[in-house]
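We modelled each protein-ligand pair independently. The example shown here corresponds to the zinc ion entry; the chain sequence is given first, followed by the ligand as SMILES.
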Amino acid sequence: MHLLSRPKLFAVAALLSLPLAVLATASQHLDSAKANEASTPTQPEDMEQFLTAVTRDVDSYWTGVFKDSGLPEPRVSYEWIPAGQTAASACGDENGAMGDDAAAYCPGEDTLYISQKFATDIYNGTLDRALPGSSQGYGKTIGDFSVAYIVAHEYAHQVQDELGLLQGGQRPATVNIELQADCYAGTWAKSAYQENRLEEGDVQEALDAALAVGDFDAANPSHHGTPEQRKDAWSTGFQVGDPSSCSQYVAS
Ligand SMILES: [Zn+2]
C-alpha cells in the first residue's frame, strides 16, 4: 500500500515525463523479473510504474482543482495487485480479497486497487471478448491511454467521495455516479491535452475503452451506463474541460 505524498509546493510539472526509474524508487514491491523484461518502445516498461505515474498525474490535477475551490487536497492510497495475488480489502469479494480482475476504488479505505494483470490485459486488448461493450462490438481496449482512462475513472470515485457524493441517503444511482466518474476522467485528459502531453491516438483509445466497458443491463442496480453513455460522458468532460460540467450526471 502506498500513500501519495507530495511536497507542499510543487511545480506543475509533467509528471508523466518523469523517467520511470525515478518513480521505481518509490515502489515497495517491484517485480524485478518483470522490470527487467524487454519492452517495445511504446509500451510502459512496467505496469506497476505506469499505474503509479498516471495516478500521480491525475492526483496532481485534482489537487489543483480542489485548491482552486478552497478545498483540502484529496488523499488517496493505492495498491497495484501483482498478477496471481490478492489484496485484502473491505471492498473485496466474499473473502475480503481483490484479485486479478480488480479495478476499484474502496471509499472506506480511500484506496485505489488495480490488478496489474487486469491493466496489462486492458493494454493488450486481451479482455475485449469479456467486456460487456466490446464483446458486443462496441469499442475496444488497447494502448496506454485505455489504461489511463481506467485509472482516472477510479480516481474520480475518490473525488466523489471527498465531495460527499458516495455517502448518505442522497447517494445518486450507480449509473449516475459512474457517468460522472467518466466525465471527470475526461476533464483530467483535457488538462493533459492542453499541456501537450497526449500522444497521437490517446483520445481515441479512451473513447474506445469507454465504449468497451459500457454495459446494456440497465435493470441491474450495478449498471454503469451503456457504451454510448460512457463514451459521451468522457467526451463531455474532455470537450468542456471543467469538472463542474460533470455535475449534470448526478443532478437530481
Ligand atoms: Zn466506477
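The longest helix spans residues 47-68.
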